[in-house]
Design brief:
Length: 316
């Protein structure tokens, strides 16, 4: 398949072409970058929702339910899940890692799992690019599920059009225990597993935390929605809240997308610079030698970077 045909087929929404495109992106193949170049102008229509929260909070179950609700509204969905322990069902699972499920497949739902291993910091970038491919393929809504562990993951969810943070009732410390930075990105809080003891306590501790913040007139105050993803209870309310947020932020969506573009640009530029340094500036093994010298305290990281940087920008 030539690059032109591949991009045309992606734009036409062809599932196999989308799967192929994602593999190129995951492999960091030059053809992946070329594809993004070809499709980028035709993207920006999909609504991007980030869902994050602690492991096992029920994110995948919730996303499955939300997807079912969105499908009923006639919308197509793309799901990117970062290293989920529990597989998704009920959609077209794209890619080589997960075997295609021939039965009960809804072509209105594309699902792709990303493995954390083998990405060396590029995971968030790859995830963002898969979202771009789904967007190009005409998905109305793209949902990214991540466990909010790394800063990159928090960034990718935080710059989505809408960020949902899921929490489960527990010891009472669960709100405090959330990684700093995650609370700030929440547009909607979901207290999932509301069938469990202590759900209202969790709601109250989120309320208490929100009450420390003064919201300006007309500013969105993150609502707290209780759900029971296993039964679907609360999910219609969640989808209504999503819709309300979407309307509330329609005028300011551009600035969110600008923040996403900024994040991508900085990430890509940093990545490209490092690649350049490794490929064209440093001798083979030099990186590792510098590490040895730092370990032996013969130099410090700042001096090492200064030296490499001046060589990289042309020896000035
Ligand atoms: N009791 C109860 N269990 C739930 C609820 N939602 C999800 N679960 C269960 O919680 C477990 C984890 O659900 P997942 O959807 O895989 O959670 P996750 O957050 O996606 O997990 P990771 O992707 O591994 O971080 C499963 O056994 C679900 O059936 C709920 O509302 N109530
Ligand atoms: Mg999951």
């Amino acid at each position: 398949m030539t690059e032109a045909t591949l991009s045309e087929r992606v734009l036409a929404g062809d599932a196999r072409a989308v799967a192929r495109a994602i593999s190129l992106i995951e492999d960091e193949a030059p053809a992946g970058a070329e594809l993004i170049r070809r499709i980028f102008a035709r993207t920006g229509r999909a609504y991007l929702i980030g869902v994050t929260g602690p492991p096992g909070a029920g994110k995948s179950t919730l996303v499955d339910r939300m997807t079912a609700g969105l499908r009923k509204q006639g919308r197509t969905v793309g799901i990117v899940a970062v290293d989920p322990t529990s597989p998704y069902t009920g959609g077209a699972i794209l890619g080589d890692r997960v075997r295609m499920q021939a039965h009960a497949r809804d072509e209105g739902v594309f699902i792709r799992s990303m493995a954390t291993r083998g990405h060396l910091g590029g995971l968030a970038r790859a995830t963002g690019e898969v979202a771009v491919v789904f967007d190009a393929a005409g998905r109305d809504v793209v949902i990214i599920e991540t466990v909010g562990v790394g800063q990159d993951e928090v960034d990718i969810v935080g710059t989505a059009d809408l960020s949902i943070v899921t929490i489960v009732p527990g010891s009472g410390d669960e709100v405090q225990a959330l990684k700093a930075g995650i609370m700030e990105i929440a547009d909607i809080f979901v207290v999932n597993k509301a069938d469990r003891e202590g759900a209202d306590r969790t709601v109250n501790s989120i309320e208490a935390m929100l009450s420390l913040h003064t919201f300006a007139e007309g500013e969105w105050r993150p609502p707290i929605v209780k759900t029971e993803a296993t039964t679907g209870r609360g999910v219609p309310e969640l989808l209504e809240t999503v819709e309300k947020f979407r309307q509330h932020t329609a005028a300011t969506q551009g600035s969110r997308r600008r923040a996403r573009a900024e994040w991508r640009l900085r990430e890509l530029l940093g990545h490209r610079f490092l690649q350049h340094v490794e490929a064209n500036v440093l001798r083979p093994d030099e990186f590792s030698e510098v590490l040895d010298r730092i370990a032996a305290r013969e130099t410090d990281p700042y001096s090492a970077v200064d030296a490499i940087f001046s060589r990289a920008i042309g020896g000035r």
